[in-house]
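assembly run, all chains below
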Amino acid sequence: MKPTAASSGMSKGEESKFKRLFVEIWKYRMTYTLLIPGLIWLFLFAYLPMGGLSLAFKEYRANDGIWSSEWIGMENFKYVFRDPAFADAVWRTLYINIIKLFITFPFPILLALLLNELRMRRYKKALQTAFTFPHFLSWIIVSGIIINVLAYDGLVNSFLALFGFSTINFLGSEQNFYPMIILTDIWKSTGWGAIVFMAAISGIDQEQYEAAQIDGATRLQQMFRVTLPNIMPTVTIMFILSVGGLMSSGFDQIFNLANAATQNVSQVLDVYIYRITFQSSTDFSFSTAVSLFRSIVNMILLLLADRAAKWMGGDGLFR
Amino acid sequence: MKVNKMFSVKALFLLALSVMMVLVTACSGGGSSESAAGTADEKNEDGTYKNNLTISYASVTDPSKADMNDKFHKYFTDKFNITWDYNYIDWDSWPEKMRLWINSGEMTDFASWNYVQGDAVKYIDQGLFYKFPDDWKERWPETAKAYASTGLGERLEEKVGGTYVLPKPVYFQNQPADPLLNQIGVIALRKDWAEAVGFELKDAYTVTELMEYAKLVKEQDPGKVGSRLIPMSFNAGDLLTGFVMANNEHARVESAFYKGEDGKYTWGPADESTLTGLKLMQQAYKEGLLDPEFYTWKNSEGGDAFKVTGISAIAGLGGLASYRQDMDNAMKKNLDLDSSEVVHEALILGEDGKYRNLEQVNFWSSLVFSPDISQEKFERIMDMIEYSVSEEAQRILNLGFEGEDWKEENGELVSLLPEGTTLEDKYPGRFEGLYVLGDDFSVINPSIKKEFRDRSVELYKEKAALSTEGGEMAVYDWDFQLYTSRSKDQANFDYATEYANLILQAGDLEENWKKWVESKQSLVQPVIEELNNEFAQ
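ok done. output:
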């Protein structure tokens, strides 16, 4: 017997919605078929591994594997919260990322706005390439360069000494550590980050500029009255995504630039997870518990940022 | 209808292709594991091995300059009819890599593993190491003797109910002193510079005396090194040994938890004597006696400043004669200096004049086997190990071939290698000394200058005398070492980095140290409680 809307527990509206969806899928079945590999990939590599998060509540034994290891409830979290280095790492991560968010976030927007104003196509392309290039260098290479440039016997201090100035302890100073990671982050990621905003700018209807020009708007006024408002939805989404990553600070950058002298300001959560996973006695359950905590906080921050964006009248991630 | 038919063919093809691609991607890279069981190793009538086996081995010996077809390597591959699949692990990433490989079940057939008690018990419990057959000691008796000399092997057997790990004996036939102390804590100083600045040469100095020498060198620059001069080229690890351990033998990770006079466990880094060492460290740093960026140095950079670039007056050396020979070679090669003329070896004393060091338990690192290793491979490797322990093999491993690289004259071993060269120069990347460490043979190895060997033994004896006559020796506490718990694992700190950080921090050192001690209590106290409940008198 064919199930009716009432017998399947669905209202007529819901039933027709599902029917419409099915018809829609059938209509574009070739396109949907192409989606299958992506969905399988997503399932295998993004959702299936999430099962491993159960390790946070287990005592992992390699011979039992993830699924058969013994459940121990919240025991791992008891050990996580007992370690003062963990709480320090959480606050330090948030501190660094909030500073990074407010200082580095506007740079790609600014760069995109400025590049958009350039009229010489070749010059614009050359600049864009130059700004984007650092993104493709790994942090290990960048750190090597920074260390060679800023070391006591490095380029900067050699110049300072040459002109009679006293040398500066760049690498071993806690005060210099945050400026160093922020500046290197800006240098490395601004060009790459600007690509998204450049794409958003290219989608702006040219008629808006023409109208603004007829109204006598200057280039600067066009930038602030036309370009910027048009890319605000993109800015909002990028901001929300950045907030969602507040608990994950660039491991490669900090790990490679840190040393014993800056240990107190560089032990962020990612470095802490690395240390407890690979540099001390093996305990994957413990590491997973810390990672899970980080992911949950990141998710909460993301949802809060989404709500805040909607509350302020913008578009959120989830509509 | 036509459309539907096309759809079904195309769609099915696409679907099948995508599923296949994803599955191939997802499943690729998984190695096939051999069965742990299998047949016993077969031999020909003449005693040679029937089948050629490819054996994978991971260790920290750098094979980059090795020629696997040279006489040395071929001798072993031919003798045991094997082909090596050698996996080099960089020293700095050794513990990490081994952790990853062992936990992921991707271990080589056998490997040199930096033994960690807590990990060992976990790995054994989880079946990640191969369990030796019960009769292995009868089948490979020389190996069993060397194994027994380590002290650890049989204790671990009692705990876990079988043999899973072969701890590597440091000394087997040639122990230089009794009690045996750790080789660490021997420094090299430029004696030509000491003479030039009027500094007295002695067998042992307090840290303050060494700093006095460093100051004199800094002021007078007898080597005309200029701004590159590093009076004391100590890295964070050398400072821990030379400055802090010299004042508190319980300042290191090996002996940080120890039983006090009251029979109760306590934590050494919180002792006042640790602060004494830290104050000296900070003083040396502030007075410019250390490199301004010593904390960024990797493993060998401190020693290189002494023996390669020749810009340092004092460096950590270690007590093995082989280290001294390496220094001699490096100075000859890089600085054209005869190290016997310019290097003086000495010990470091605490500020109270007492000598402090750790009792050397007779093992360092270990050999472990993959749980998936075949019986045939296991037996072949054990045969190799058994041979490597023999006197004949020890001579080949450490001296080369008789008549070609060495000879015996009036009962003495004489090296035939050209002056200034070593066996490593002739046969680079020798990793076949699988079990007994080179420390043992270095005591009698004629390719190491006799004066270096004699001095090494002399210093071992002096350490033993100093530590038992008024000095302090951190005894190897088997109760603590074999105890495993999660709290103990968690209270495992990198003391060299922690101490370096403390002396570099702004503010008052004593206050910072107290805060640091306090901050560690939430991890340290549970361990102390556990140890006291378990072992306190």
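Residues 1-6 of chain A have pLDDT under 50 and may be disordered.

The radius of gyration of chain A is 26 Å.

not gonna interpret more than that til we talk
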